[in-house]
Amino acid sequence: MENRFSKYLLYALGEILLVVVGILIALQINNWNEEVKNQKNEYSFYREILSDLEKDSVKLNDLTLYYTNRIEHAGWLLKKVRDPESPFKNEEFGKHVEPLYLGPLGVTYNSSYEAAKSSGAFATFKNEKILKNLNQFYADFEELKVIMESTLRSLESNLEPLIATIPENFITLGSGEYVLTSGSHDTSKFYEFIADIKDQRNLKVDIKAFMQKPQFEHYLIGDLGRSFNALASIKLRKERLAKIDNEIKEYLNE
Fold it and tell me: Which parts of the chain have pLDDT scores under 70?
């Protein structure tokens, strides 16, 4: 009976051991499956981020062109302000002042990042360094956004009221020649429409006298300052974007 009991005990212990081993294996497989699932989600997230970064890169290139263009025209006007004897036609004034009316839009493509962040997905991601850099990249957008909003506010509150003191009969079909357009923001129809409405008043607008107003010079200098600050911020943002882009691609290829 003792021998039979010992065999039974060994059998029972063996059964328990098998059950424990089975549970441990099942847990390990489950953990492995979770890790695979989490890795797939993380890799899918970073592929979406790469797509967003590509859109951001295009937007930053557009903004670089926008502010470079703005500096060129504001600079031309400031030179004429500070050299009253320099000849120019009213139509030239129109060509260089019209591009300043185009306001920048503060947009960054962070929908994928915000969606993952709000869902709590980051808790399962392994590469904390990239997440930290991404968080900083999107947070730093506020710096550029503030400059763009300041440009737009100054345009609306300073330039527009100032130009409103003179008739805008300096606008011609060629006034929109230097206005940057993209996609659906084509302004050619607007200038064609305005040019078709002939001004029969024969008003004489002394643009040179207008340009000697201190407010106009003040606006141009402020606009140039914001534009140079924007270009510096854009340059830094491009560098950070390129660094993050490389980090993500290296991580996906490991």
Answer: 1-7, 9, 30, 36, 182-185
Q: Which two tokens stand for residue 70?
A: 């703005």
Positive/negative CA dihedral, 15, 18, 23, 26: negative
Whole-model pTM: value is 0.83
Tell me: the pLDDT tens digits for 37-88?
778 889 999 999 999 999 999 999 999 999 999 999 999 999 999 999 999 9
3-class secondary structure for the chain?
CHHHHHHHHHHHHHHHHHHHHHHHHHHHHHHHHHHHHHHHHHHHHHHHHHHHHHHHHHHHHHHHHHHHHHHHHHHHHHHHHCCCCCCCCHHHHHHHHHHHHCCCCCCCCCHHHHHHHHHCHHHHCCCHHHHHHHHHHHHCHHHHHHHHHHHHHHHHHHHHHHHCCCCCCCCCCCCCCCCCCCCCCCCHHHHHHHHHCCCCCCCCCCHHHHHCCHHHHHHHHHHHHHHHHHHHHHHHHHHHHHHHHHHHHHHHCC
Give residue 93's Cα distance to chain centre.
Answer: 31
Residue 59: which domain range? 2-252
Q: Using an 8 Å Cβ cutoff, are 90 and 205 in contact?
A: yes
pLDDT of 102: 85
- Structural domains in the chain (count): 1
